[in-house]
Amino acid sequence: MVFASKQAPKKRSWLGIHFECCHVYTRIYKNRGGTQYTGRCPRCLKAVQIRVGEGGSADRFFRVRFRR
Question: What is the reported pLDDT for 46?
Fold first, then answer.
């Protein structure tokens, strides 16, 4: 008989993003390498990448505005 592990799933790091292009909010998650957060606007699918590094921000929520 095999029992499932009762360990909690590993929590993923995320940032809260407000995409001003479509006025929607979503979370984006850190990539497997831990080098950047990547995601897309859920409506228009424009991509965003935010690098992780020393001297960065401690903020967890951001607004994204794309250049025209």
Answer: 96
Output the CA torsion sign for 35, 50, 46, 28.
positive
Q: How far is CA 27 from CA 7, 33, 64, 68, in A?
A: 24, 18, 12, 23
Q: Give the DSSP letter string of 22-67.
A: TTEEEEEEE-TTSSEEEEE-TTT--EEEEE--TT-----EEEE---
Chain length of the chain: 68
Nearest to 64 by CA among 53, 42, 48, 43: 48
Interval 38-60: pLDDT, tens: 999 999 999 999 999 998 888 99
Task: Provide the whole-model pTM.
Answer: 0.78
